[in-house]
Amino acid sequence: MANFWKILRKTDTKKRLSVPIRFLRSLPPFKLGSHAVTFEATDEKGKAWPFQCSIRKRGQYPKPVLTRGWVAFVKSKKLQVGDKVRFIKHKNRATAAISYRVRVEKEIKVFGAIFGYARI
């Protein structure tokens, strides 16, 4: 199903996670006149994390970001600049229920050079 991944930058680890506009199509619909929507994503251990995705109230470019719930997730997972986060939307074929998953990969450095990523 739909997903996106991002290598984290400083703002992503300190304040909010900017997400691509195409990710908005994967989220529950925004209520009329609203600039935010809440959804839950389950991590690899089965813990549900509530997130809020907000867009600008005005302007042509909505600039979507994850705000509420994001910093708590970053702190819990001890995420740092260079780590990778992935969001996956899943639709159950039998029930048509929609769920979201969030996965984290920590950057592995060997002698200062990026060697790869490891799931945590």
UniProtKB/TrEMBL annotation:
Q: What is its main location?
A: nucleus
PANTHER family linked: B3 DOMAIN-CONTAINING TRANSCRIPTION FACTOR ABI3, TF-B3 DOMAIN-CONTAINING PROTEIN
Keywords recorded for this protein, A-Z = DNA-binding, Nucleus, Transcription, Transcription regulation
Which SMART domains does the UniProt record give?
B3 (SM01019)
One Pfam family per UniProt: B3
Q: What subcellular locations does the record give? A: Nucleus
Instruction: State any single GO MF term.
Output: DNA binding
Its organism's taxonomic lineage begins at: Eukaryota, Viridiplantae, Streptophyta, Embryophyta, Tracheophyta
Q: Which intervals hold domain TF-B3? A: 2-106
Superkingdom field: Eukaryota
UniProt-listed Gene3D superfamilies: DNA-binding pseudobarrel domain (2.40.330.10)
One Gene Ontology cellular component term attached to this UniProt record is: nucleus
Q: Which CDD domains match?
A: B3_DNA (cd10017)
According to UniProt, the name of this protein is: TF-B3 domain-containing protein
Identify the species of origin.
Populus deltoides
